[in-house]
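Fold this sequence, please.
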Amino acid sequence: MRSEQVFALIDCNSFYASCERVFRPDLAKTPIVVLSNNDGCVIARSYDAKPFVKMGDPYFKVRDKLRQHGVKAFSSNYALYGDMSERVMSIIESMVPEVEVYSIDECFADLTGIREDLTGLGRTIRSRIYLYTGLPVGVGIAATKTLAKLANHTAKRLLAHTGGVVDICDPFKRDWVLRNTQVSEVWGIGRRMTGHLAEMGIRTAMDLANADARTLREKFSVVVEKTARELNGVPCLELDETEPDKQEICSSRMFGMRLSELAPIEQAVATYVARAAEKLRAQGSMCKRMRVSIRTGMHSVGEPHHAQGALVELPYPTNDTLLLTRLATEAVGLVFREGYRYSKAEVLLMDLRKAGEFSGDLFAPAQPVECDRLMQVVDTINRRWGRGTVRAASVPASPDWAMRRDMISQAYTTRVDQLWTIRG
């Protein structure tokens, strides 16, 4: 039995674009891009779309070019992506001892002590995910999390030769990957750091691994030192199974159009409050302060600009959507000004703690038990029947100001009326 630590990084390939392709087999060979909120910028690309567009390119500037090259654009469908992510993570969790979900499309797995061939296990994980979800993944296996990241990068970069799985626990294979990987591809080494390292003659991952760790710490930071040690096979980053509770929860969106009246802005704020409060209850927390802010398009030429927020001290620690909504909409009325065209609102929940962690005096008010029960019922119904099934009266079902998503695909997995249909 292996006693040394072994990590795997399982990462979905071009996740957003791949999710769109699962239910559109006709797009299997069509380049795909996915756009940000309000169809603003390109935030995801399939591999075959990368030659035609850069990440972050404004869609209105590249629209004609994409059409010319047959690239299909989609609005962000976060409900679909989130649901597909949960399916992938559930499959992985059923196959390995421990998992740390790192992002919506990737996770680390602890393979320490597993007796079977790890490359074979990686191929089994990869094939099962594809069979059950239709999503392609890459698997990198190594003695540290940083090396697992590099192995995963190599698995996808050399897909035709690796079959999507690379195990570099063997020092010979590890060194080959280090020699043939630019330092800019190392996890945690950004563009600016790449430039600093180049000045020291460090251009490959192997160069960084061979650099003096103490010098790296003194010249840069302990993070760079740990990265170098991890490249040498010394684990410095443990698997974090539980995600720490958020210290602040923010909910904000750009409006689908400029708003110059108070009523629709209040509706938008009520909608954002509902989402933030849902996240608050999901981690079992309450908040004591809330900041509500609105702003115009700060780069709009020829229009007056205005941005202002209001800090709300809550009467008691709460996660009650109704109370938060009432106070938030009152705060919007205080900062709203006639004559401006607002483009965005934000709700920030602050001073978050667990229910028993707030220490008030004996006579301090507390959230009524009835509110706790009501919120539990609301969350249960919305989890079962879909977000927004039960909502505050001030939250409209289909508002005119909603985020613009003109090219959004169906909610294939989360709405009964949009299930995938096959016609003979």
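DSSP finds 14 helices and twelve strands in the chain. Residues 292 and 328 are 6 Å apart (CA to CA).
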